[in-house]
Amino acid sequence: MLLVKACSLALVVLVSGAAFAHEKHESPSPPAGGDERESTPEEGEEARPPAPPVVIDPQRALLDHLHNKIVHFPIALGTAGAILLLLSYRWPQFGAGARLLLVVAAVTAWMAVQSGKAQEDALAGGELGEWLERHEAFGKWTAIALTLTALVCLIQRARPAHWLLALIVIGLVSYTAFLGGILGHTPV
Fold first, then answer.
1. CA distance 124 to 159
2. First to last CA, the chain
3. How far apart are CA 147 and CA 105, in angstroms?
4. What confidence tier does 60 reach under pLDDT thresholds 50, 70, 90?
5. Alpha-carbon span 167 to 175, nearest angstrom
6. What is the Cα–Cα distance from 176 to 180, expressed in whole angstroms?
7. How many CA within 13 A on the CB side of residue 6?
8. Which of 45, 61, 82, 139 sits CB 3.0–4.6 Å from 41 for a disulfide?
9. What pLDDT does 84 receive?
């Protein structure tokens, strides 16, 4: 019962954190249903010409910043797999789903590591260089932990260690994602 309460609390913390994660970010697009009238310039300001239309190439948009797209898979699948692994102590039927999610999370984590290396030139050596190195190191440790957890979950005799590995995965995934959020949302 204590494990269920702890998992419920962890799930509430994860969900509430995600709900408030973007609360202070300004949207680059105007609010829906907003005022369509052009504002008049204040005294001493010059009128700005209208912005040119945005042109998006779908192929380029799909492949640009690939790391930013891939990382959501190990974050979501790794966290869900670890939570199911914890729940499988009480409800063993969750074990198979946990193992599958952790295997897919491990594979996508290594894909995220590789795509991150291809994208690091944009931030390397800049103001966020220290944060980039930290994110890269924790990304590799997260991929290793997901791989190790996925493999150990296949060994039934190692079941007593599953809970510890699940907690390590949740911690590493969360901290690595936090560091990635710093890199992605800090204006430079």
1. 41
2. 47
3. 8
4. confident
5. 12
6. 6
7. 12
8. 45
9. 97
**Which pair of structure tokens corresponds to residue 163?**
């809970």
Nearest one of 1, 153, 14 to 79, comparing CA atoms: 14
Residue with token string 């260089």: 129
Position 182 pLDDT exceeds 90 = yes
Q: Report the distance separating Cα 140 and Cα 79, nearest Å.
A: 16
- Residues making up the chain, counted from first to last: 188
Closest to 184 measured CA to CA, from 140, 120, 118, 125: 120
Give the whole-angstrom CA distance, residue 77 versus residue 98: 9
129 neighbors 166 (Cβ within 8 angstroms): no
One-letter amino acid of 89: Y
Place of tokens 């103001």: 127
Residue indicated by tokens 């969750």: 94
Question: Whole-model pTM above 0.85?
Answer: no
Q: How high is the mean pLDDT of the chain?
A: 83
